[in-house]
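Job type: complex structure
Entries:
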Amino acid sequence: MSDVIDRPLSGQEAPAKSRLRIIDCDIHPSIHAHSDLNPFLPKRWQEHLKTYGSHLRTPYIGTTPYPRSSPLIARRDAWPPTGGVPGSDLAFMQKQHLDPFDVEFGILQVLDLFIFSQQNLDFGAAIQRAVNDWQLAFWAHRDPRLKASILVGQDDTQLAIAEIDRCAKTGEYIQINVSPRANEPLGRHRYWPIYARAQELGLPLGIHVGGYGGHAPTGGGWPSYYAEEHQSNAHTMAAMLTSLVIEGVPEQFPKLKIVFIEGGFGWIPSTMWRMDQHFEKFRSEVPHLKRRPSEYVKEHFWFTTQPIDEPDEAKHLRSLIEWVGVDRLLFSSDYPHWDFDDPRYAFKTPLTEIERRKIFNSNARGVYKL
Amino acid sequence: MTRHIVARTSEIPPGGNKVVDVDGRDVVVFHVNGEFFALLNRCPHAGAPLDKAACVARLTSPEPGVYQRSRVGELLRCGWHGWEFDMRNGQSWFDPKRVKVRTYPVVIEDGETLAKGPYVAETFPVHIEDSYVIIET
C-alpha cells in the first residue's frame, strides 16, 4: 500500500463525492548514471558499455536523429534540484507528479539505452536484463505505486522469451514491452512466440512509440525536421495496428491484450474504417481472419491518451473519443517529457463522471489487473 | 483598483522572476531589461507554471544565413509544450487571436512615496530607502 492510500482524510478534505485517483500509464524513469546498472550487469558488459558504448539501428551515433524540442525531451521544470536528469530522482518525481496528481499507480516506461534498438543483440539482451532488474530495485520497490514492465528486444526472440520467463517468475511486472519498430512488422510470424508467452502468462503486451528498427521512420523515407518526424510515431502505430490485426495476431491469440503507448488516438477511427472497408472486398486474401478488423481492435487493443489531439473545436475531440470508444482509452501523462499531458487540462472537452472514471482509472485497472 | 506591494525591486535580479500570491492567484513577476512584467503564472494552453518558462528573444531571418535577435528576454517560451508569449501583453505568438496570458500593470515606487500614502502595504514591510514592485488588479 502506498502512503497516499493510507493517508487519513482530514476533516477539511472530507469529500462530497469520492475523488478520482489516477492511473498514469506512461511515466519515464531515467538512469541517473550508467553505473547504476552495474549491480545488474555482468563485468563483461559493463566493460563493453564503457569501451564501445551504445549503438542503435540508426545512422546517427551518440545523438537522436532530430533536434528534440528541449534537452532530453524533458519539461524545463522537471530537472531535479538535486542534480541528475529529469526522471532520475524518485523523491522529486513524487513531489512534482505522483503526489500532487494523486497517482494511484504509475506504469514505468524505460527508454534509456533503447534496449529494443541495439545493434548488438547480446549487448541488448544484457542491458534489458539489467534495466528490468533496475526498475524493481530503484523504482517499484521504493514506491509501490510504480509498476515495472518487462522490456524485451523482440529481434532475438529466444532471448526475449528467456527474459520474459525470468522476470515473470517474480510476479512483479505488469506487462511485456516490445518496440513498434523492429526489423519486421509486428504481425510477422517470427514474433509470435512472444505473443504466445504473453497470452500464457496473462500479461498485456505494451508497445511504446519510438525506437529504431533499421528502417527510415516513415514509409516514405527520412523526414527533414523533428516536427515532421514526430508525426511518424502515429504513422508507425497505425502501420503496426494494421500489421498485428491483418496478419492475425488477435485471431491466433484470443486472450492477448495489447496496449499502444504514446501514439495518441486520433488516427484510430479511420484506420479501423479503412481496414473494415478493405476486408469486405479482400477477405478471400486473408481467410485466417474470422471477423471484421475493427472487432479485433475493439476487443484486444487499448490506447494511451497522450499526446492528446487538440482540434480547434472541442466537439471534434468528443467525436474522436466516441469513435475510438471510451473503454479503449487509458490516461497517460508522459511525465517528465516536454509533451506531457496534465490530467486536469488535457481533455479540452467535457467528459461525464463515468467516462472520466474509465479513462483515468478503471480501464487501466482492468487491463493490468491492478 | 487595488494596488499590491509584492516585492522589493532588489529581490528580482535582471533575467529572474518571483512568484507572488495576489488575492489567492499565483502571479509571476519578471525583471527584463530594466522593466518589470507581471503575468498570471499559468500557461493558458495546458496549465504549466510560467516561472519555469525560458525567457527568449524574437528571432527573425530576412534571408538564409542571416538572423536577427530583438526584444531579448521579453518573450516567454513555456517549459512544457513550447508555446510562446509576449511578456508585455500576454499575447500568444502561435494563436494570438484566441490565447492570451492574463497580465497585470506593474509600477515601481520608492519607499518614501509609499510611506506617504495613499496606498498602504497590508503585509509587506516598507522601508523608505528601498524601491518596490506594485501590481495593480
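Summary: The interface with chain A takes residues 46-49, 52-54, 79-82 of chain B (CB under 8 Å). DSSP finds one helix and ten strands in chain B.
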